[in-house]
UniProtKB/TrEMBL annotation:
It comes from the Bacteria. This is Lipoprotein. InterPro entries: LolA/LolB/LppX. SUPFAM superfamilies: Prokaryotic lipoproteins and lipoprotein localization factors (SSF89392). It comes from Streptomyces fradiae ATCC 10745 = DSM 40063. The keyword Signal applies. Keywords: Signal. Gene3D superfamilies: 2.50.20.20.
Length: 333
């Protein structure tokens, strides 16, 4: 495999890891439960405004969940970490920071996605980092377009197949399987789940009217502490009480202090724009997404089988080759 294709593979996998790390902070789908919890925690003095904002976000959640698809344009900005180490999301190889952009169509229930990603320093910099990479998700499987040079290096195939569910089953670890499939579901940036998390904020408020892309909207904002964020994250249910406590302690130790969400709801009751922010010692992680065409059919199709190569099979063959090489070295010795 030539260097450029190898770099592209690393870039694609790293980008997915970052997207999952940020999206993994989203809440579950229990909007009613979140609303009741937030109601109990809401400051009494802010009750009238809070209650009105809650009703709007609750209605937006229900409409968005029913739409099941939308067109999205997303920008994620990461701060540079010291000495080029792991980035603010805690993912190795992202120390350069930078910006990643993605656009396309996403669907939820079931989860589907067909997007194109571009980026600069966030994706590792260097050759090919801003050329764009297409990602397709269908039937719980992710496919990554490895670019025009891939067929020459990979037996005429250009699509990498990454089956998280099969990978989890291969390990035989039920908790890991749930975490892998949960991360996959989070990657499609389901706006309904993000609204559900906003409903868990006891500090939800109406900011005021604003225009987004020339469209009149109403701006709402909510903030969660690290403890509230972990409690709202349904995908962490697989962890034991001690593991959850350790996670919270680790996040606090890393300097992550708050997670906030802004949403702009249009006249039809759908979120036209969402901003997600996390404060870290290196700086602020920002994710901005604009949505349109809610309910439009997401006609996402998997690439032809003849043009795909399975990441798990590739790793198994690599492992076998390394074992054979080790055996040969032992025999020679």
């Amino acid at each position: 495999m030539r260097v450029s294709v190898g770099r592209r593979l690393g870039v694609s996998v790293t980008a997915v890891a970052v997207l999952a790390a940020v999206a993994g902070c989203q809440g579950g789908d229990g909007a009613d439960k979140g609303g009741k919890k937030a109601a109990a925690d809401a400051p009494a003095a802010a009750e009238p405004q809070w209650s009105s904002a809650l009703q709007v976000i609750q209605a937006a959640y229900e409409k968005t969940a029913a739409a099941k698809s939308a067109r999205v344009r997303l920008t994620m900005t990461m701060p540079e970490s010291p000495a080029g180490g792991a980035g603010a999301a805690g993912v190795a190889g992202l120390g350069a920071g930078g910006t990643m952009e993605m656009s396309g169509v996403v669907g939820w229930d079931p989860g589907t996605m067909d997007i194109t990603m571009t980026g600069d320093g966030l994706l590792g910099g260097g050759e090919g980092s801003s050329a764009g990479s297409r990602l397709v998700m269908v039937d719980d499987v992710m496919y990554m377009d490895m670019g025009d040079e891939a067929p020459a290096d990979l037996g005429g195939k250009r699509w990498l197949k990454l089956d998280f569910k099969a990978l989890g089953e291969k390990t035989g670890d039920a908790a890991l399987r749930k975490q892998l499939t949960g991360s996959l579901e989070s990657m499609n940036q389901d706006p309904a789940k993000q609204l559900a998390m906003l409903l868990d904020s006891p500090h939800l408020k109406h900011v005021g009217p604003e225009k987004v892309g020339g469209v009149q909207t109403q701006h709402y904002k909510g903030t969660l502490t690290v403890d509230e964020m972990v409690a709202a994250n349904k995908s962490l249910a697989v962890l034991s009480e001690k593991e959850r406590a350790d996670l919270v302690a680790s996040m606090k130790e890393s300097g992550l202090t708050a997670y906030d969400t802004d949403v702009w709801v249009d006249a039809d009751g759908y979120p036209a724009k969402m901003d997600i922010g996390m404060v870290t010692p290196e700086g602020r992680i920002e994710v901005t997404a604009t949505y349109s065409d809610y309910g439009a059919k997401a006609a996402v199709q998997a690439p032809p089988a003849g043009e795909t190569f399975d990441f798990m099979e590739m790793m198994e063959k690599l492992s076998e080759a390394m074992e054979d090489g080790a055996d040969a070295d032992s025999s020679a010795a």
